Every structure is written in C-alpha cells, then in structure tokens.
C-alpha cells in the first residue's frame, strides 16, 4: 500500500480511507469494477476530504450515495472485505496481503530522513519484529504509541505487510490499542462504496443500525414467489444480506474472498435477481403508463413521404426501409412512440428522421427536429431544406443564438402554422409552445441530458419521439438505461462506401502526416485535423487549436486552411463549415465540435491529434466524418508518449474495429456500464449488482417473474419496487 501523501490520519478513525485511496476509485481489490456508487468515491465535490461530516451535512452525503431510507442502507453492499478476524504476531505475518499484525511497542521514533516520519517498532509474541511507518502523523499518534509502550499494551495494526529496510513493515496501518486477550471480530470487515466525508466506520455503523431496525420492524417481507426461489436456489433476502454485510470467515480467506468478489455466491445471486426484477417491473410499469396516454395517430395519406422517397438521389437500403416501416407503424398508433433509432455513423439516419417529420406534416401535425450542437442543427437545417423545399414544405430554424426578434418570430410560427422546426434544444426550452406537435426527432440523442428529455416529455399533446443515436448501445443495455424504449437498428451501410483505413502513428512522425494531408489536397480531397481534447481547460484547448492552425498554415502555405472551435459565434462557425463543405477550404482544423454528424463527402482524410485522450465512441464518431464519399479514406490517429495501458487498449480497439457495435461492446468492457453513457442519462436506476451480460439466466427469470407478479400479485410487485427504487422511482418518468 503506497503511503498517503496528503493529510495526517488520525489514529484508529479513518485510515480505511487510506486503504481505499491506494486503489483507483471504483475498483475492487482485484482491479475489477465496483458497483456504481463507488465511482465517484473520493472525487465528489463539496465534502472536505478527511473531515468527517456530521448531522445534516452527513445526511446530504448519504443522500448523494442514494442512501436515505433504512432499506437503502440495507441494500448498500460491500465492494470487498478485509479480514481482521485473525492476528499474526509481529514478524510472522505473510507479505503482500492486508492482515492484522499484533505486538507490543518496543520503540517509538520520529525520524527526519529522508523526510519527517514516525516509526514504531513492534515485538510479536514470538519475539520477532515489525515496523509501522507513518509519513504524515499527529503528535497525538506519537503519544498514543508511547503510552502503549509505557503500559505494555498490545497493538493491533491492520495493513499490508511489505519487506522494509529493517524487516517487515506496514505503512499507515489502521491501529487499535487493546487489552490482552481482547477478542478479534468474528466476521469479515465489509468495505463499502463511499464518498469523501463518510468514513468506513461511520458507514458500517449506519448500515448495521439500519439492518437491526429493519429486523425489529419485522424483517424483509418475501417478495419472490416460493417456486422462483426454489427454482433458482436463492436464499431469503435477509439471509443474503446478513451474509453479504458480515460474512463469517472461512478457513481459506483468499478463496472466500474470490468467491464473494466473483459474485456467483447464492447470496449475491439473490440480490442480483431482486435488482433485475425491480428493473423489469419498472420497465413494464413505464410501458403500461405510455400505452395509457393519447397521442395523435399519424395516419394521413403518404403524399409527402412518397414524394421524398421518389425525389431522393438514392434508394433506401433494406435496413432503412425496415426501420421506416417500424417507425411508421408506431406513428399510426394512438399512444406515444418512444423509439431509439440506432445506426452506425453514416448509416443514413437523417433521412429516416425526415420521413418521420413528413409523416406528421402529411397527417396535419407539426414536427420538431433537434440536434445537440448548432453546427449539426445547421447542417440538418440545410439538408432538410434541400429535400423539403421542392415539396413545398417550409423549414423553420430556431436556436439559442438567434436574435430576440427572429426568435420570437419563430416561436410564434411554432405556436401557429409552422410545419417543421429545426434547431438545438432551444426548441424545447425557452418557452416554445407548439400548436400541434406530432413528432419530435432528437438526433444524437445521447448528447441530450435528462432535463432536456424531461422538457420534451412535458410538451403538451404527448408527441411521438424518435431518438437517433450513432453511439450504439447493445440491446440489453438500452433496456437498462431507458425506462421504456423500443429500438430499431440500421445494420447496413449505404452501398458504395469504401472502408476507412486507420493508422496509428506516433507524434514523432508528424511531418509525414502533414505530407499526407498535402497529398490528399493535391488529389482534390479535403482533410480534417482534430486538435487534442484538453478536458481540464477549454482555454488551453482553444489555444492548442489556434497554434495548430498557425503551424499548418506555415507548413502548407499553398493550402486553404480553416479553423473551427466552440468559442466562435454561431454564424462564424456556420460560415467556416459552409466554406469547407463548398470546398473553399482544403483543410479544416477543428476541436471536437465537429464530432457529431458533420457530413462532407469530399473529405477523405482525418487526423486526430493525441488520439489517446479521446474516448472510444468519440474516436469512432470522429473517424466517421470521413469515408462518406466514394474516395478511399484514411484516419490517422496520432498518439503521444508515454501511452498508458488503457490508452493503448483503446487505440487498439479502434484500430482493429470499424463496426460501431463492436466498438461499443469493447468500450463497455473497458469502462464498465456506469460510465458508458453516464449516470445522468439513465432512465432506470443503474444496476449496481447485476450484470445483464453475465447474469442472463437471472434476466430471463426476472422477466417472467415480473409478468407473473404484475398479473397475480400487484401489491407484492409494488412492495418490491418500493424496496429497490424507493425515492428514485421518479427517474422513471424521464
Ligand atoms: P448518420 O446515420 O450518421 O446520421 P447520415 O444520415 O448523415 O448518416 O447519412 C450519411 C450520408 O449517406 C448522407 O450523405 C446521406 O445523404 C447518405 N445516404 C443516406 N441513405 C443513403 C442510401 N440509402 N444510399 C446512399 N446514400 C445514402
Ligand atoms: Mg447523423
């Protein structure tokens, strides 16, 4: 365990914090991903690390962990365990694993080399020695050891034993001074996901109190049908929780730990099943609620949709035709469609959105078409105008950056005779009231937050919703993230695309890359140059983009080079994008503002600087900006040194895969579902314990059980939902 640098650790209290800090947040002892709540551990704002919160402040911190009711505490389960049930005499403990080392203080020393530290020598019952080392310490700690030494008391130190300079040593162990013969705990010590300001002892105590209170109030009423429990061999919830919160030690601790952290133990399976059942119940309830709402049935004669299909310069692919049939059938129903259209980058989702809009218009309703950025919204606006002008449909434009007068005018049109409004989320916010909104189309849906989705939902008249996303979410995952969503997939690219070649090139070979850009331009093609993502500082990111732009201008003086970044005004951005699309620019230097949706078929080369800083889906999206025309396209991923292991793994994935679904799956493996979309996107509370891919047998059983409970025991279904979701059930409405 590496020493903790920051603050002195008070004795006895929270050196658990130090144990947890030795490991990346959210990871279990073996580096495996921990349940969602562990994710932000130690990194949360607001709480002062190391300073235990009290009273109201502490309740707020608990609430942040999702812990408000007794049940929440009871269902907050350990990420791992420590074994304090056996103690080794000093000098006789095994190396490398955290254990309790016991001995009497022989020596207390404050040393100053190489830096100030407290070193304590313990002598074990066998006469051998071990050293405790504290790199940050309080005077009271020194005193405590001196008193223990003077009174000959026994010290128990918990920590990882490592070979030190003098012999075995523990750095920043957790300390207890005890009487001779004081019993050791008879259960393993649970380590919970927590957040800064809440120490393990505090959390442990609250959880123990909650469990006792719940048992005194009658325990956990069984919500599973007996037959299901018997079939799956599941213990009762009480048995499962008792075991998971405080497992009695087995002889082989390592094997026991492995069994528990594998999560195949029947106790874990019970918890996983319960959680999956709650999810299934929640999906069914949301579905029923949606079916109970009235929406306009879009059943007009297909005059406009047919006209667009006839006029398009291409025929729909088979996959596009299939998803359009699914969507049109939904739109004809009298309750709101809520459908996610997934299709890889370049698979042709926009035209499907256009068809949905026309379906509303030809049925006498309005349509709204939204994109997450102005650049993308603008591009849709232009494309839709190209397609719909000839059909006599006026396309309106509404974004946050419009002048107040123009905005008011557009809002007025939306409230009256406007047929199709394209824009950013300003469309659903800023007091726009549609007169007869039939369908809302949301492009790059994953970029919109819950607040925006809620705003859309709260629009009057229950418009149908078509959400489009190129971040492919595996079907099972989609189910986890959205309360109730149908999914259509375009699993085929339009014909005539040439595959994109991906190259991984070290930063050191930048000159060759610049030459390649020049070559592409020479051949009449265009190139993107994407500047590195600098998450900490937008200003720095902007500066880098400007620098790159200047350098490229110097290196390629005969090429027309443009620059686009997030700080430009909307019309400036639009002007640069338009110039690039019209081939008035050869090279476009850009920050990630071009990430989504931008469509310039003549661009055949994409250079991404410091590709290792980007996420997988981002890289895939960026790469998808090329390979949109017939020309052979390439994507160059420039990487800096040194590459971390995860960065290397990410780049390997993007190098080896072109299929967005495969990439999403790998992404999921590398990052874990919690970070895949982000908690706030979640419509259904995240699964904390179950894993849809690992626990497929439980998923199936949970689905059947949910159907059965709703039909035969609705009050039990309610009780189960309440237990597992409690206050979070309001999330379902999003
Ligand atoms: P995405 O799914 O990434 O949003 P787009 O809708 O931008 O993809 O489509 C990518 C490009 O493919 C556009 O230029 C679009 O006009 C074109 N396209 C769409 N469908 C077809 C098709 N069936 N045949 C040929 N080209 C198509
Ligand atoms: Mg698109």
TrEMBL record:
Helicase C-terminal domain location: 523-669
Keyword DNA repair: yes
Family to which the UniProt record says this protein belongs: Belongs to the helicase family. RecG subfamily.
Entry's Gene Ontology BP terms: DNA recombination; DNA repair
Compositionally biased intervals (Low complexity): 12-25
Stored CDD domains: DEXHc_RecG, RecG_wedge_OBF
Name under which the protein is recorded: ATP-dependent DNA helicase RecG
PANTHER family: ATP-DEPENDENT DNA HELICASE HOMOLOG RECG, CHLOROPLASTIC
Region (Disordered): 1-58
Catalysed transformations (reactions): Couples ATP hydrolysis with the unwinding of duplex DNA by translocating in the 3'-5' direction; ATP + H2O = ADP + phosphate + H(+)
Species the sequence originates in: Oryzomicrobium terrae
């Amino acid at each position: 365990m590496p020493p903790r640098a920051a603050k002195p650790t008070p004795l006895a209290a929270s050196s658990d914090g130090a144990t947890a800090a030795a490991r990346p947040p959210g990871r279990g002892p073996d580096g495996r991903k921990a349940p969602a709540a562990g994710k932000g551990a130690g990194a949360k704002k607001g709480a002062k690390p190391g300073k235990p919160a009290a009273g109201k402040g502490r309740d707020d911190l608990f609430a942040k962990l999702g812990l408000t009711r007794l049940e929440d505490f009871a269902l907050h389960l350990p990420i791992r365990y420590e074994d304090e049930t056996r103690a080794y005499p000093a000098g006789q403990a095994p190396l490398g694993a955290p254990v309790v080392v016991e001995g009497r203080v022989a020596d207390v020393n404050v040393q100053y080399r190489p830096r100030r530290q407290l070193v304590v020598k313990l002598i074990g019952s066998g006469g051998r020695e071990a050293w405790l080392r504290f790199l940050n310490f309080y005077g009271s700690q020194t005193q405590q050891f001196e008193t223990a030494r003077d009174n000959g008391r026994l010290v128990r130190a918990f920590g990882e034993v490592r070979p030190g300079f003098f012999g075995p040593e523990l750095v920043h162990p957790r300390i207890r001074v005890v009487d001779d013969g004081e019993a050791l705990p008879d259960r393993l010590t649970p380590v919970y996901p927590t957040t800064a300001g809440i120490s393990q002892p505090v959390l442990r105590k609250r959880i123990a109190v909650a469990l006792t209170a719940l048992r005194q109030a009658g325990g956990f009423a069984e919500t599973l049908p007996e037959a299901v429990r018997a079939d799956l061999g599941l213990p009762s919830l009480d048995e499962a929780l008792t075991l998971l919160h405080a497992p009695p030690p087995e002889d082989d601790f390592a094997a026991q730990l492995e069994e528990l952290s594998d999560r195949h133990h029947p106790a874990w399976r019970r918890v996983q099943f319960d959680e999956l059942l709650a999810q299934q119940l929640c999906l069914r309830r949301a579905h029923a609620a949606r079916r109970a709402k009235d929406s306009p049935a879009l059943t007009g004669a297909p005059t406009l949709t047919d006209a667009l299909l006839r006029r398009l310069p291409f025929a729909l692919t088979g996959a596009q035709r299939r998803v359009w049939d699914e969507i049109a059938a939904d739109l004809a129903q009298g309750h709101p469609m809520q459908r996610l259209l997934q299709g890889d980058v370049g698979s042709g989702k926009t035209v499907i959105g256009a068809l949905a809009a026309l379906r509303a218009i030809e049925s006498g309703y309005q349509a709204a078409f939204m994109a997450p950025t102005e650049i993308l919204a603008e591009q849709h606006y232009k494309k839709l105008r190209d397609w719909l002008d000839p059909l006599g449909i006026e396309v309106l434009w509404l974004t946050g950056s419009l002048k107040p007068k123009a905005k008011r005018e557009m809002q007025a049109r939306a409230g009256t005779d406007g047929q199709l409004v394209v824009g950013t989320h300003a469309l659903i916010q800023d007091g726009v009231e549609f007169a007869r909104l039939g369908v809302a189309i949301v492009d790059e849906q994953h970029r919109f937050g819950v607040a925006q989705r809620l705003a859309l939902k709260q629009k009057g008249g229950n418009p149908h919703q078509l959400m489009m996303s190129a971040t492919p979410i595996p079907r099972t995952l989609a189910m986890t993230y959205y309360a109730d969503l149908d999914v259509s997939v375009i699993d085929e690219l339009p014909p005539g695309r040439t595959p994109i070649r991906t190259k991984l090139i070290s930063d050191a070979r930048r000159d060759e890359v610049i030459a390649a850009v020049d070559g592409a331009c020479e051949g009449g093609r265009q190139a993107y140059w994407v500047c590195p993502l600098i998450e900490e500082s937008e200003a720095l990111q902007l500066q880098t983009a400007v620098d790159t732009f200047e350098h490229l201008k110097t290196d390629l003086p005969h090429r027309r080079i443009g620059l686009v970044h997030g700080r430009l005004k909307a019309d400036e951005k639009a002007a640069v994008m338009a110039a690039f699309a019209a081939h008035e620019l050869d090279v476009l230097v850009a920050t990630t503002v071009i990430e989504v949706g931008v469509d310039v078929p003549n661009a055949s080369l994409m250079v991404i600087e410091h590709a290792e800083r980007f996420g997988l889906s981002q890289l895939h999206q960026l790469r998808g900006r090329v390979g949109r025309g017939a020309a052979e396209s390439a994507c160059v991923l420039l990487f800096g040194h040194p590459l971390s292991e995860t960065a290397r793994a990410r780049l390997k994935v993007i190098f080896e895969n072109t299929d967005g679904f495969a990439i999403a799956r790998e992404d999921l493996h590398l990052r874990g579902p919690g970070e895949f979309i982000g908690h706030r996107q979640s419509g259904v509370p995240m699964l904390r314990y179950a894993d849809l891919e690992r626990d497929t047998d439980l998923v199936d059983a949970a689905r059947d059980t949910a159907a059965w409970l709703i039909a035969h025991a609705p009050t039990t279904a309610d009780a189960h939902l309440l237990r597992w979701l409690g206050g979070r059930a309001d999330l379902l409405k999003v």
